[in-house]
Amino acid sequence: MQKIPTLFVRDETDRRYITDEVTPSCEWVLAGEGIATRKYDGTCVMLDADGEWWARREVKPGKSAPPNFVEVNVDDVTGKTMGWEPIVQSPFAKFHAEAIANLPAQRPGTYELLGPKINGDPEREGRHLLRRHDEALRVSIPFARPHSALMIREAVKSVGEKGWEGIVWHHPDGRMAKLKARDIR
Asked: Are residues 174 and 123 in the same domain?
């Protein structure tokens, strides 16, 4: 899984926040294309077609990748390398094992690992579990199409007020874009 681009370009004076400039290749969101879903605040894991579990991993510039790391891409801005490491060697292995016990069925794909020991449990799950990304709660953006930057910001602020991390948009052709509530001033 490649890192999902942020819908708006980061503010170069303070990279914690975004501008109103749309990230190139994400214009389709403002055109009203695709489906908006809830962005869960956990950590990404993947079950591959061979039945192996992987944890998403970022490796900072100058740091060594862990053993058996599979590189997916490198962020040209930050220099971070994104990829996958076997879940059994990740710091989340124990919590993932607990989540598997709560998973009714295992199908290949990507999941969000959530729970008390993941990011302080902002989702308030109370136990470790896995949510499939392709089954994330859909978000209705009650605005006319095309959307404006202001409309999108307001929608993301409103889900942030519910305690959600943000929104992920899914285009029918597989493209995605995200916006976190904390990205907005």
From this structure: no
